[in-house]
Amino acid sequence: MNLQLTALDAAIFGVYILGVIALGVYASRQNKKTRRDYFLAGDKMSWWMIGGSIIAANISSHHLVGAMGAAYNRGFVAIAMEWGAILLGFNALLWIFLPFYIRNGFYTVPEFLERRFSGAARTTYAGLILLTYIFVEISAVLYLGAVSLNTLFGFDIMVCVLILSVLTGIYTILGGLRAVIWTEMLQLGVLVLGGIILTFATVSKAGGISAVLETSKDWDLILPATDPDFPWTMYLGGLVCISVFYCATNQFLVQRVLAAKNEWHARMGVVFGDYLKFFVPLIITVPALVAPKLFPDLEKPDQLFSVLVANLLPSGLVGLVMAGLIAAVMSHLSGAINSCTSILTNDIYLPYFKKDATDEQAVRFGKLSGAVVIIVGVACSALFISHSEKPVFLYLMNAYGWFTPGIATMFLLGILWKRSTNAGALAAGVLTIPLSIILDQALPGMPFFNRTGIVFWTCMIVCVVVSLMTKPKPEAELAGLIWNKESMKLPEDQRALNRGLRNPAFWWAIITAAVLFFYIRFA
């Protein structure tokens, strides 16, 4: 099923691509040659840019293509991963971790682990997270974006991978986080507009709002424990682990919070991200719910996005919606590349190879490492070609479960329990991958959420036991690193910003109540 672009579609698509590159290059020229400006955009980001860029980076081809395929295949429960993040991961970021990241002036998330435990804990995180970014984030996003371009236009998949990686790499490597965030705001607008157009076209063709309401009888957010993909037992550990990691301890998203003007903007940005996290998945899921009425026998669920675009949209809108897909791919890809360069530079190059490096040398290394990351990601994207009989979105969640239990353990116990020790944290981090492999080999039929939950709680127990057997840090060295109720309050000089409708807690309560309503109504 190849779709030939009309002149209008090609013009819209081409203008968008040129616009993103031009904006990224322009943003790169606003950078000063300092490490903080390149990696944290000079700490000048307002709340609306933080929240928007968090979701623009988060929503990518594995949502437009992968999550839409999962919803077509499994129904409304596919949205549980997205809304669960509002209740779990983003709450952990907002109310537990955020104050410590901002007040300590960290460049990267692993710096917390070094201050709390040791340089070895920081390096363990850096190793695990780089594997996750390269094998899960960058390679999968490239693959899924290329699949859609291949389905629609007939281009070779690896050619599409190369085009996407080169276009995104240009402005990401040149401009650092500032270019990433500026372009993400444009990409978010195009993504949402394209998603709304595709949703409207699909729902209208399927019979209107009544067709959507007809599917609501099957809107189950809590499925039996025997379900192979989304058992209710996932809420006992697997979903908690992945969500806390992804939203609260993930350099990929947290880097935007670190670039905030101040803590109030950081908090308000996360809450604004909650609202976007609630609405954007709806425009991805709703068309998939009614799509079986129109296309009941798709060979592969991940083809749905391309099929809807090819069959339901007129000339002009095809180019706009495909620009939305590329917007999702490029924003996610640029964020992942930038996070890799930040960690490689600040957590590996500077501590171990060039402690006395100037800002100029650090930025230069960041740019070179970005190019290497892109090359490795392109090579790894070919691995996904053999994993397409089920929605790739489920493979991604599975992959997160291999790397994240130890990371979530190190951060949660590190910030909530002052008795946790460096030895306990390292034991949890090192245990993650071997234990995941053992369980996967011994019980291959176990749902990946359950496997992740078991590994997560095992890591927690191991960390507690080892910590109780080893000597903790003196309390004086833990000042400003352990959570208490005072941590939720803004610094004194910012509390005037927190009054009335400017209070993030007010808006947080509204969106949290909305998500809880759906969970209770469709449990």
UniProtKB/TrEMBL annotation:
It is found in: Membrane. This is Sodium/solute symporter. The keyword Nuclease does not apply. NCBIfam families: sss. Keywords: Membrane, Transmembrane, Transmembrane helix. The chain crosses the membrane at residues 6-26, 47-71, 83-102, 123-146, 152-174, 186-212, 232-254, 275-295, 307-329, 368-386, 392-416, 423-442, 448-469, 505-522. Belongs to the sodium:solute symporter (SSF) (TC 2.A.21) family. It is a multi-pass membrane protein. The keyword Zinc does not apply. PANTHER family: SODIUM_GLUCOSE COTRANSPORTER 4, SOLUTE CARRIER FAMILY 5. Its main location: membrane. It holds the Pfam family SSF. InterPro entries: Na/Glc_symporter_sf, Na/solute_symporter, Na/solute_symporter_CS.
